[in-house]
């Protein structure tokens, strides 16, 4: 079946104080994909540490005045994930990835550690898509054997936090001049072999929307991506090397 060649199950990983545009920009492109092609059996699972609504602000923010936030209700938890195979892991970034209080992001790293240690889940995985500092969450997670998931792998992240990424995770081949980076990720298996998946890491916040168009173009075809951009009246950046927010090291 032609559908067997397409990624159909996206799993969004959420944590307190995620960045709204990291999530909603790419999601709206995928929403439009489903609306334009209703027979395409796309599925979205939303995973978080608990079944409680996940906010765009940290629970410990202590901000004055009423909260200005948005919340998303998970469909699953990290300890009770969807039974269906996941095709693409979608990991956004946000302030919660950089908090000194690791309670926001540590459950994500723990979930990813367990996911990448699960041979069945890994063998079904087709790709990983990170936005902004979501790449830090992936880099903090461990493959079988204890190696960092992005050690030696080309990736990018939010340019405002780029030097911090270099300091915290120097084993990653961080790209300072990239709107997004497309490469392959070799995930070790207990058998001693590896399973290779596609990896897209994007720069900060709005770059995630350009990045998801790159995913759609590669997986569903350039004409499909072009049509979605027209429907959304979105002026895409199609060259991953054109990065107006690049940093000089």
The computed structural class is alpha/beta
Fold-level CATH name: Rossmann fold
Report the end-to-end length measured between terminal Cα atoms. Answer: 48 Å
Number of beta strands: 11
Question: Please, how many domains?
Answer: 1
The tally of helices reads 7
Name of the level-1 CATH class: Alpha Beta
How would you name the CATH homologous superfamily? Class I glutamine amidotransferase (GATase) domain
The parts where pLDDT drops under 50 for at least 5 residues are none
Percent in helix: 25-40%
Mean pLDDT: 94
State the major sheet. 7 strands, mixed
The CATH architecture is 3-Layer(aba) Sandwich
Q: Strand order across the biggest sheet? A: 5-2-1-6-7-11-10
Radius of gyration from CA coordinates: 17 Å
- How much of the sequence lies in strands comes to 15-25%
- So what's the overall shape? globular
Helix-strand pattern? EHEEEEEHHEHEHEEEHH
How would you describe this protein?
InterPro entries: Class_I_gatase-like, INH-QAR. Keywords: Glutamine amidotransferase, Signal. This is Class I glutamine amidotransferase-like protein. This protein has a single domain, classed as Class I glutamine amidotransferase (GATase) domain (Rossmann fold, 3-Layer(aba) Sandwich). By secondary structure, the protein is of the alpha/beta class. A 7-stranded mixed beta sheet has the order 5-2-1-6-7-11-10, sandwiched between helices. Strands 3-4 form a two-stranded antiparallel sheet. Strand 8, helix 5 and strand 9 form a beta-alpha-beta unit. The protein is 29% helix and 19% strand. The chain is globular, with a radius of gyration of 17 Å. The N and C termini lie far apart (48 Å).
């Amino acid at each position: 079946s032609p559908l067997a060649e397409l990624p159909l199950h996206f799993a969004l990983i959420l944590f307190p104080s995620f960045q709204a545009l990291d999530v909603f920009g790419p999601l709206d492109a995928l929403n439009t994909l489903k609306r334009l092609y209703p027979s395409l059996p796309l599925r979205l699972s939303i995973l978080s540490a608990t079944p409680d609504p996940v906010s765009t602000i940290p629970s410990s923010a202590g901000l004055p005045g009423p909260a200005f936030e948005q919340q998303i209700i998970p469909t699953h938890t990290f300890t009770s994930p969807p039974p269906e195979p996941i095709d693409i892991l979608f990991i956004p970034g946000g302030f919660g990835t950089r908090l000194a209080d690791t309670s926001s992001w540590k459950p994500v790293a723990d979930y990813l550690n367990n996911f990448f240690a699960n041979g069945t889940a890994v063998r079904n995985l087709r790709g990983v898509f990170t936005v902004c500092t979501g790449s830090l969450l992936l880099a903090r997670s461990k493959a079988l054997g204890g190696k960092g998931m992005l050690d030696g792998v080309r990736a990018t992240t939010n340019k405002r936090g780029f030097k911090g990424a270099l300091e915290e995770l120097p084993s990653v081949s961080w790209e300072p001049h990239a709107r997004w980076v497309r490469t392959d990720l070799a995930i070790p298996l207990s058998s001693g072999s590896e399973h290779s998946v596609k990896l897209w890491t994007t720069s900060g916040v709005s770059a995630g929307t350009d990045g998801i168009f790159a995913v759609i173009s590669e997986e569903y075809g350039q004409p499909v991506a072009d049509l979605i951009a027209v429907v959304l009246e979105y002026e895409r950046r199609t060259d991953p090397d054109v990065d107006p927010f690049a940093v000089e090291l």
